[in-house]
Amino acid sequence: MPTPQKGQVLIEVHAASLNRIDSYFLAGGLQTWLKAELPQTLGGDFAGVITEIGENISDFKIGDEVYGNAGVYRGGSGSLAEFVVSNVINIAFKPSSLDFTSSAALPLTAASALQGIEDELKAAGGQKILIQGGAGGIGSLAIQIAKMHGAYVAATAKTDDVEFAKSLGADEVIDYKVQDVSQILKDYDGIFNTASPAEANKLFKVLKKGGKFVSMAGQPDPELAKQHEVTAIGETTKTSSEQLTKIATLIDSGKLKVYIEKAFPFAETKKAFEYFETQHPRGKIVVNIQ
Asked: What's the pLDDT tens digit per position in 92-131?
């Protein structure tokens, strides 16, 4: 049982969700990036109930239903566990309109979408934004947020997910299985890449001069950015109580919806990872701890 330290809370986890960073850690990234001693518990996003309070905590109490990120890279103890310790700056009250399963699907993906669309691209009416990977966990939320701000949104998705991306509000959806987005779109103000970095370089042609390329899949090529006279940013998401509170408000007001493709029981966490890494799921994959 982990013990909360100053500025931390102990949470009984009801559900946790998988993110790409978890797959990276599973492949050895905990040692290459964090230089962490093993064993460590995987998982960041969670939803659950506070069972113990550390020192200097005044905003939460035992019994509060919360959600947030407790990854080891955020100073937590890892969310794929029955109990988790999290820094209080990385949690908030969960959306009142959602259950624990749906709430656990939100923290890192919704924070990433907010940071990319609002903070980096500063989406607004009259802008054209391309969201690469529009049916995934981050992309599905990014489409909704960009439309919320009045932008014209194009998205890429595989054949089976084209209609899903349209249902989220995308004005135009390109089936990347049969179409080359770089040959179809041009003069866009911004790109938010949530997909593989393998073909990211050709996306520069979609942007107009002065545009901005924000990528969740590593830093876009700085030389190509210079050639195309655009700004390129590799986004590293930072979750915070303020962000999570805003996300919960958007959810409870009906302005934002979260999508879960499949939920696995805790005992089948390995199967959850296998599915997550091979199926390119629509929305999120969640593990129900209890």
From this structure: 999 999 999 999 999 999 999 999 999 999 999 999 999 9
Contact 17, 45 (CB under 8 A): yes
Q: pTM of the full predicted structure?
A: 0.94
Domains of the chain: 8-106+258-288 (3.90.180.10), 109-234 (3.40.50.720)
| DSSP H helices in the chain | 20-24, 30-32, 100-104, 107-114, 137-148, 162-167, 222-228, 241-252, 269-278
Comparing CA positions, the residue from 15, 12, 91 lying closest to residue 284 is 15
Token pair of 284, please?
């999120």
CA atoms within 13 A on the CB side of 149: 21
Report d(CA 208, CA 215) in Å as an integer: 17
Residue 46 phi, psi (nearest 5): -155, 165
